């Protein structure tokens, strides 16, 4: 996000939210960018301004099977203004880890430069499997066209 100056802090009663993913597949391809829709609900009585005026942003992190955080932040998305008890849907661009395996994706809101809404790893969590990306080579397409469905390696 593009926050260039200190912003006023939200009152403590404003740090109440629900975050959920709408279209998150249980399997993702290693290192392949994908966009998911995330529903963010302001469960408080405090109106939230848009990210550039409030600092409130959706953040996500990848966790290894051991629970260790991979990197500082996997992705983030700015939010529009959200009235009390209202929801909005935002696009969140994700890039899964490049190593295949089982991971947990954690999504939570934070007020940039100040604090997480809850503990950093207490938000929406989902277990995902990261697999090798599908290879779509011209040779593979040609062989399928000529010979029909055949096994020529990864698909």
Oligomer: single chain
Largest sheet: 6 strands, mixed
How would the global form be characterised? elongated
Structural class: mainly beta
Number of helices, where a helix is a run of at least 4 consecutive DSSP H or I residues: 2
Number of separate strands: 9
- List SSEs in N-to-C order: EEEHEEEEEEH
Give the percentage of residues in beta strands: 35-45%
Q: Mean pLDDT, as a whole number? A: 83
Note the gap between the termini.
37 Å
* Unreliable sequence segments: none
| Rg, nearest Å | 19 Å
Helical percentage:
under 10%
What would the keywords be for this entry?
mainly beta, elongated
In short, what is this structure?
The protein is mainly beta and 155 residues long.
Question: How would you describe the overall organization of this protein?
Answer:
It is a single chain. The chain has 155 residues and is mainly beta. The protein contains 2 helices and 9 strands; from the N terminus they run E-E-E-H-E-E-E-E-E-E-H. The protein has helices at 51-54, 138-147, and strands at residues 17-21, 27-29, 34-42, 56-63, 69-78, 87-94, 101-111, 115-116, 124-131. The strands form 2 sheets. Strands 2, 4, 5, 7, 8 and 9 form a 6-stranded mixed sheet that branches. The model has no long low-confidence stretch (mean pLDDT 83).
